[in-house]
Amino acid sequence: MCLAIPYTIREIFSDGSARALSKGVETSVRLDLIEAPALGDTVLVHAGFAIQKLDKDASEELLALWAEVEKAEKSAEASFFHDGTL
Length: 86
Known about the structure:
Blueprint: E1 5-12, E2 17-22, E3 25-30, E4 42-46, E5 49-54, H1 56-82
Antiparallel strand pairs: 1-2, 1-4, 2-3, 4-5
């Protein structure tokens, strides 16, 4: 199973790499596999490579889903620690 994380391109360098941001985490990303990357684009990143550029609607939908996953994780974590199992 592969996992691709959505990142927003913040800076593009002449060597084909970019500085990208996701949930406060900044990383270096290779842009070789996508066409016409631009500042502000949301891209899916796997193993350090941007593998797909998302349009605005897809980007908003995916980021909303990520927020739901984070909320569910926090809720499960709170329940786990609250019921005295640890």
